[in-house]
Specification:
Blueprint: H1 2-15, H2 17-48, H3 55-65, H4 68-79, H5 85-95, H6 97-130, H7 134-159, H8 169-175, H9 179-182
Length: about 180
């Protein structure tokens, strides 16, 4: 029992590797595009306010949104509960309100839509693995047909009173009132 369940779990994981890699690719592209938009909008905003920017605010922006890679990591931490996304939203919203809105939309989209699609993809793959394969289905059907044939054989043996291997009309007429035959 335990070995069978372990085998099924391993097969589920192995069959999901292709989906896992494609999900990583989709996540990477989405995180990259959003990070690119956020860094670009922050850069434009910071260049226009270069002299009026507080050094602590500048270091706060640089530590979380200083590059595309760092912004991607910030998005990753926000989506997958590494950090609370509200603190990053506050930084963005203070300097680029449209960036804050994009950030909230991105977090909501990834958490609601993308993660549900990814989870359903993995569940679908797992269900395909758990379903019996064609060989198992054929064996089950063969066993069922064998059981049905055995019941018919027993039924005709009951009808064949003289045990000659042939059920005659007289034997059928004798047993037509029998409860076992009528059932």
């Amino acid at each position: 029992q335990v070995v069978s369940e372990t085998r099924v779990m391993v097969e589920c994981i192995m069959s999901s590797l292709g989906s896992l890699l494609s999900c990583f690719l989709v996540f990477s592209v989405m995180f990259y595009l959003c990070a690119l938009l956020l860094v670009q909008s922050l850069s434009i905003r910071l260049m226009s306010r270069e002299g009026a920017l507080d050094p602590t605010a500048r270091s706060e922006i640089d530590s979380t949104f200083g590059s595309v890679q760092l912004t991607m990591f910030t998005l990753y931490r926000s989506v997958f509960h590494g950090d609370d996304w509200d603190e990053y939203y506050q930084v963005l919203n203070r300097f680029v309100p449209t960036g804050g809105m994009l950030f909230v939309v991105f977090i909501g989209f990834v958490k609601i839509c993308v993660l549900n699609v990814v989870a359903s993809r993995f569940f679908d793959k797992a269900q395909q693995v758990i379903l019996p394969d064609m060989w198992t289905q054929m064996m089950d059907e063969s066993n069922k047909q064998g059981q049905i044939a055995e019941r018919f054989r027993d039924f005709y043996k009951k009808l064949d009173s003289d045990n000659n291997g042939v059920v005659s009309v007289e034997e059928l007429l004798v047993h037509r009132e029998s409860e076992a035959i009528c059932a």
